[in-house]
Design goal:
By secondary structure, the protein is mainly alpha-helical. The chain has 13 helices and two strands, in the order H-H-H-H-H-H-H-H-E-E-H-H-H-H-H.
Length: 318
């Protein structure tokens, strides 16, 4: 039995340990590893970005986190790209995953339009405001705030629980007026699950701030969308996850237009990043049943904390 457990952990270690070792290396050591007289060719950085994004796609699926949450802090800390370009690519990374899954989730009745539209309207406005604010700030200030945000997200991921089928006594006035409720077939219990939500006003306020943070830092917001929909508003976990992706696709698209308009989306960075993450996500989906996802999630949280600390140090100019 112990040998079987070791075999299951081997793919996790091979996938995650290189990234952890890279994060722990000081910048001076990384710089010293390159020949001092020969500057690195641009195409090498593009190739490294694709390889990193590929592994990121695998890890993000196994850990159940959005690729944008890991992409922006790590790439901004270890690659010689301007933070504005990294944030623009990070939005497209988060957006690509959400858009690819959206149609299927809508057909299955898991992603709900009545629930997602009011949240997306609020979140889109705030994500545009966040993108404008982020592009107006200095790179060091954004880097510092990014580090603080990433460490806070890691803490939320450690503490946030999950509820498969939350109990909702009565819908609030807004939910009733908008008809936010629904049902879907759950094959694991062979039943049709009927659901409704409550605390919609509080949820709208929180989604405003979530959208602002996502737009400012170029990150996806699944880390916050799902707990708010599931634990606060009372949507079933599967509905919360699916609707979160739908909200993210709308909010991310709104913020991405700002980065495009400001010239902060560079194809040389965005194309290998999106391509690598999408390819890695398919591999990660196949590995999902073969590895201990809880262990991967812990390692990812540790990586986020380290990347957050590095972002703070870089933002402070140390």
């Amino acid at each position: 039995m112990r040998a079987a457990g070791s075999n299951k952990l081997l793919p996790v270690l091979c996938t995650v340990l290189p990234a952890v070792i890279l994060l722990l290396l000081p910048p001076d050591l990384l710089a010293a590893s390159l020949p001092p007289a020969a500057p690195t060719a641009w195409w090498i950085w593009v190739l490294l970005l694709f390889v990193f994004s590929f592994f990121l796609g695998i890890v993000s699926v196994l850990a159940g986190v959005g690729g944008g949450v890991l992409f922006v802090p790590i790439v901004s800390s270890f690659f010689p790209f301007h933070l504005d370009f990294v944030r623009g690519a990070g939005l497209l990374v988060a957006l690509s995953g959400a858009l690819s899954a959206g149609p299927s989730l809508l057909r299955k009745g898991l992603a709900d339009l009545k629930l997602s539209l009011p949240l997306s309207l609020i979140g889109s406005v705030s994500s545009i405001a966040g993108a404008i604010a982020g592009l107006m700030m200095s790179a060091d200030s954004v880097q510092l705030l990014l580090g603080i945000a990433i460490i806070s997200i890691a803490a939320i991921m450690m503490k946030a629980g999950k509820s498969g089928y939350p109990e909702v006594g009565e819908s609030d006035v807004i939910a009733k007026a908008l008809g936010i409720s629904g049902s879907y077939y759950e094959p694991t219990i062979d039943e049709t699950v009927n659901w409704k939500v409550h605390r919609t006003p509080v949820g709208l306020v929180l989604f405003f701030f979530i959208g602002f943070i996502g737009g400012m830092f170029g990150m996806g917001a699944g880390w916050a969308n799902v707990p708010v929909l599931n634990l606060l508003m009372g949507a079933p976990l599967k509905v919360a996850v699916a609707t979160s992706g739908l909200v993210l696709s709308m909010n991310g698209a709104a913020a991405a237009w700002i980065y495009l308009y400001k010239g902060a989306v560079l194809p040389l960075i965005a194309v290998p990043a999106v391509g690598g993450v999408m390819l890695g996500s398919k591999i990660g989906a196949r590995m999902l049943t073969k590895v201990n996802t809880g262990s991967v999630r812990i390692v990812v949280i540790v990586m986020m904390v380290i990347a957050g600390v590095r972002s703070i140090i870089k933002g402070m100019g140390l």
